[in-house]
Amino acid sequence: MPISSAMLDLFCGAAIVIGIFGTIIPNVPGLLLSWAGVLVWALFATVLKYVLPGRHLAKSGVPTRTIVFGSLLGIVGFFVVPVVGLFLGFVLGVFLAESARLRGAGPAWPSTWKAIKAVGFSMMIEIGTGLIILVSWVGAVVFG
Questions:
Q1: pLDDT tens for residues 125-137?
Q2: Number of domain units in the chain
Q3: Fewer CB within 10 Å of terminal CB in the chain, N or C?
Q4: pLDDT by residue (tens digit) across 31-48?
């Protein structure tokens, strides 16, 4: 049975709480366990950042070959254009692959627009996760 997002959230939350209690209970790792819970949760969010938009694109009718080409051009863009190259490369890759497949720039725009939305969704996942981590850290600093 694959682990669901809610199950992982509960598991990570339990690890964090047990870690907090571990600061007063002998033989429980304490903050190391809390740190591991946050790390697992953040890694899962990073995986979701790539999987969910890709799945949405595939359901929208964008071919897998187009998504792969966009991803490869995104990797190249990551190294060529600092900060935004991954996203620019991905969108450009989708546009080029769809232009070639559909034989024209005009028909490629719907798929490209879906890719732009997918990139935005990916950014929202990452920003949201980062904000949750930041709020947690601020809470620990202020109230800890």
A1: 889 888 888 888 8
A2: 1
A3: N
A4: 888 888 888 888 988 888
